[in-house]
Amino acid sequence: MAVSRLASSSSSLSKLLLRPLPAPPFSRSFSAIASDDDGTVLTIETSVPFTGHKIDPPSRSVDTTRNELLSFFHDMSVMRRMEIAADSLYKAKLIRGFCHLYDGQEAVAIGMEAAITKRDSIITAYRDHCTFLGRGGTLVEVFSELMGRRSGCSKGKGGSMHFYKKEAGFYGGHGIVGAQIPLGCGLAFAQKYSKDETVTFALYGDGAANQGQLFEALNMSALWDLPVILVCENNHYGMGTAEWRASKSPAYYKRGDYVPGLKVDGMDVLAVKQACKFAKEHALKNGPIILEMDTYRYHGHSMSDPGSTYRTRDEISGVRQERDPIERVRKLILTYEISSASELKDIEKGIRKEVDEAIRQAKESPMPDPSELFTNVYVKGFGVEAFGADRKEVKAVLP
Amino acid sequence: MALRGLGRRISIGKRCFSSASEVEKRPRDGKQINLFSAINQALHIALETDSRAYVFGEDVGFGGVFRCTTGLADRFGRNRVFNTPLCEQGIAGFAIGLAAMGNRAIAEIQFADYIYPAFDQIVNEAAKFRYRSGNQFNCGGLTIRSPYGAVGHGGHYHSQSPEAFFCHVPGLKWLYRLAVEEVPERDYMLPLSQAEVIRQGSDITLVGWGAQLSVLERACDEAAKDGISCELIDLRTLIPWDKETVEASVRKTGRLLVSHEAPVTGGFGAEISASIAERCFLRHGLQLEAPVARICGLDTPFPLVYEPFYMPTKNKVLDAIKATVNY
């Protein structure tokens, strides 16, 4: 009985996951290739319309420009290349610990950035390499932090799960899922207090959506009209558990009950941009809103998880073929004749070189000094002593 | 390293025996298996002998992240072995309720680092249930299992040892098992609160539990080369802990060293030190010849790249053994 349920649910899950890219309604006959942007606004429809919960969804026609589409392509390709390179580094044991890769979900990070400023705040869980990059982080900082080196964004003390960028409003990088959501609501309170018209995006996954602290924080945010946007990056698997086995209601955008919600195709960068823009306006006026990004991760939960024991390889390759975010933008660029296929290939080659160069630089950075083990716990000096058997005060001197 | 790193379990239980069998000192018939297999076997036996036993937690259905629950769902069905959503507080509360109805609830917290959302349920509900209801209700059938401790690359949230927080709560029991041990294949019972003297010695007593014992064993071997004879005790249960065995040993050797991975300040080593100092300070002409040494983790969050510096390694223990013996 469990098996048949598995079969029927996974096929309906597959149907959900494999919605194909529709052909654009018309194609313009622009002349050249290359990126001169005359500022013309292209209006493109999202793959599917938005679904709203207690709110009128925004229109599915999104305004964009040629330059923006090219930048989407470039940035998502950098993220994709970076994650694949991190995969190889992990297998070469240069990255140790836990490494959770984001490839497949790039559209969420990029679409969000396109709709907001660096004064808005983003906070997420541990699948944060690309979110960090989107906030303005550099590849060298990413690879250094992954390898635990001094030039990493957290000085090598955080690792894969703890990236932060204070000046760009990126609050990390958290290990215990769900714990970042009340934090995000606190950030939003501070923003409302300082009246600077900024918002906070608090990201979490479909697994964390069942944490009690999410609902506690949601209630507080709604009570006090905080400008917080809760974004559920629903990649349909909480580590190894499919969403239908973990949640009675996998319609995460509806879980807010009295808080409005929007369901978005998270593999369509234009849809994400539209939704985030809409959400920001809403949050500044009316308080919290939930966005559910319907997305997918190609890798397993982490590098220790092959990702194929709880889902079929056909499902993964199916999504890759039908809904890959980078391929979608590539098709748009080619259809609207913004660039040629060979130019796009050149961009990708350039990115590969960039990533390799960043890895080379990161490898040269040294490990943090052993004295850093004791810093940032207390004010200098306190808590650093270790007593020996003779009861004399001994400051622990590390080799 | 892999076996050592991953072969740790802590159990919080109100009653952790299997129902049948007599109590034995230390079963002699058995083969050497690792902790995961032992736990797996134990769970098979528990579910077989008690039709009201249940195993649940995050991702236990396919076998769990450490393979302790393999085969259980297939054999006993998904009504008795099931996955829970990602909610530790919910899991703990749910388990307490199930146990209060007389069932044997075996909940798994995937890593000990994740136990903190469940802290309130364990400390405020589970520990006090029998007491506050005047013995009308109890959740004695509750067991919570969780892997703890460093694995070499776990970082801040896959390496912690939270025992000190829970040992402070009367009403709970907290136990450990060695990573590799000889285990009989049949059902058997071990008494709680009985420490085991793994090695006899005369110069110094070493006390530890869980995977730290392998570090202590290697330190003992090295110390023996310098002519220091170490007595090694596996505490096995932290609350209630076997004060008598440790006291008897320290009366014999006159020196004590405690070692654990958790940070030294407020760690369980502090409790052992204070209790033994109380009992063995000066009695019957025998006394503590040196202060109690604690070789533990440092007072920092569990670090990522600095793990080798943070850990209470064999050399740190060896240093302390020599300093204590030569005090």
TrEMBL record, chain A:
It comes from the Eukaryota. Residues 302-321 are annotated as: Disordered. Residues 75-370 form the Dehydrogenase E1 component domain. It catalyses: N(6)-[(R)-lipoyl]-L-lysyl-[protein] + pyruvate + H(+) = N(6)-[(R)-S(8)-acetyldihydrolipoyl]-L-lysyl-[protein] + CO2. Residues 311-321 have a biased composition (Basic and acidic residues). It is an enzyme of class 1 (oxidoreductase). The keyword Repressor does not apply. Its cofactor is thiamine diphosphate. Gene3D superfamilies: 3.40.50.970. Its EC number is 1.2.4.1. Keywords: Oxidoreductase, Pyruvate, Thiamine pyrophosphate. SUPFAM superfamilies: Thiamin diphosphate-binding fold (THDP-binding) (SSF52518). GO terms for molecular function: pyruvate dehydrogenase (acetyl-transferring) activity. GO terms for biological process: pyruvate decarboxylation to acetyl-CoA. Tetramer of 2 alpha and 2 beta subunits. The pyruvate dehydrogenase complex catalyzes the overall conversion of pyruvate to acetyl-CoA and CO(2). It contains multiple copies of three enzymatic components: pyruvate dehydrogenase (E1), dihydrolipoamide acetyltransferase (E2) and lipoamide dehydrogenase (E3). This is Pyruvate dehydrogenase E1 component subunit alpha.
UniProtKB/TrEMBL annotation, chain B:
GO terms for cellular component: mitochondrial matrix. It is found in: Mitochondrion matrix. Residues 33-192 form the Transketolase-like pyrimidine-binding domain. Signal peptide: none annotated. It comes from the Eukaryota. SMART domains: Transket_pyr (SM00861). SUPFAM superfamilies: Thiamin diphosphate-binding fold (THDP-binding) (SSF52518), TK C-terminal domain-like (SSF52922). Its EC number is 1.2.4.4. Its cofactor is thiamine diphosphate. It is an enzyme of class 1 (oxidoreductase). The keyword Transit peptide applies. GO terms for molecular function: branched-chain 2-oxo acid dehydrogenase activity. Its main location: mitochondrion. Pfam families: Transket_pyr, Transketolase_C. One of its GO terms (biological process) is response to nutrient. Keywords: Mitochondrion, Oxidoreductase, Transit peptide. It catalyses: N(6)-[(R)-lipoyl]-L-lysyl-[protein] + 3-methyl-2-oxobutanoate + H(+) = N(6)-[(R)-S(8)-2-methylpropanoyldihydrolipoyl]-L-lysyl-[protein] + CO2. The keyword Transit peptide applies. Heterotetramer of alpha and beta chains. This is 3-methyl-2-oxobutanoate dehydrogenase (2-methylpropanoyl-transferring). It comes from Elaeis guineensis var. tenera.
